[in-house]
Amino acid sequence: MENFTYKDFTLQWHITHRCNLRCKHCYQEDYSAFEDIDKIKPVLSQYSELIKQYNCIGRLNITGGEPLTHPGLYDLLDLARLKGMRTGVLTNGTLLGEWEARRLKACGVDYVQISLDGMEKVHDNIRGKGSFDRAVNGICALKAQGIFTSVSFTVQNNNIGELKKLASFCYILGADKLWFDRVVIPSQEDSENLSVPAENYWKLLKTAARLNKKGRVFCGRSLQFIPCRDKLIYHCSAGENLLIVLANGDVMPCRRLPYVIGNVKETDLLTLHQSSPVMKQLRAVGIPEGCRECKYSTLCRGGSKCIAAAKTGRFDIPDPDCMLSKR
Questions:
Q1: Angle 17-106-31 from CA coordinates, rounded to 5°
Q2: What beta strand segments (E) does the chain contain?
Q3: What is the mean pLDDT of residues 14-30?
Q4: Which end of the chain is less congested by CB atoms within 10 angstroms, N or C?
Q5: Coil, strand, or helix at residue 193?
Q6: What number is the average pLDDT over the span 218-244?
């Protein structure tokens, strides 16, 4: 019998696949999936039962597509807060104005995350002309309401040199947090060569470590703690205290791992989490063989399973971008 003991449990809920942008690195293929709020409310009840069974904090992150295209977003946030869940919204920020920020404030969201993939020219090349200015306006609207605002930077070959400039910009803008992670595209599908080679990513981590000392960049994701020497050491939560629900009800262990383990319309979240063969395999990985002699092994536990799966087709081996495992 497995022991399910968690301090918290995160549900990332893609309430719609509709989106007003078409970003170059997006893994979304279907932009039509959409359900009325009354049809998707049972997901909250299933999640509420799961966190009750595990006696842990519920962290609900609502995203899309673009979540602000769903008219039921605010009702879902209100309902989640009534159920005692901590809530966040992950958005491209382009639809956020003063009214939307006030409404999010009234819903009591704990934080909002907005994506910026570089300064204006680079960001707009990735996400569409004018998207940078609209996202920045969204950040300003959130800050005017006192909402904790996080900026997400997706590292890829066409923006890897932007982190330093973006860190200074976000600091001046007043963003509460800037964090970054690697683009995840299966190697056979990476026709535009967006994935960052390991040696280039390692150079970026050294830059990030210097920025972290100035309080400009958060280095709490996979591998980032090594050059940063941060006390916060990340390990992949896929298979453990994380589930993803897509707009059509499909459930995944991680949005960046290509496995659908079931559908909430047929099987509840608690059952899928405990009984899915894929979830069991992910939990059984432990520390990959190539990492066991590393001093970070019991904390890092091999890095990102999604990166390993994208670059090699396997999630049970060390993160292929880790220079320590290569040694």
A1: 5
A2: 8-14, 57-63, 86-91, 111-115, 149-155, 177-182, 242-245, 250-252, 262-263
A3: 74
A4: N
A5: coil
A6: 85
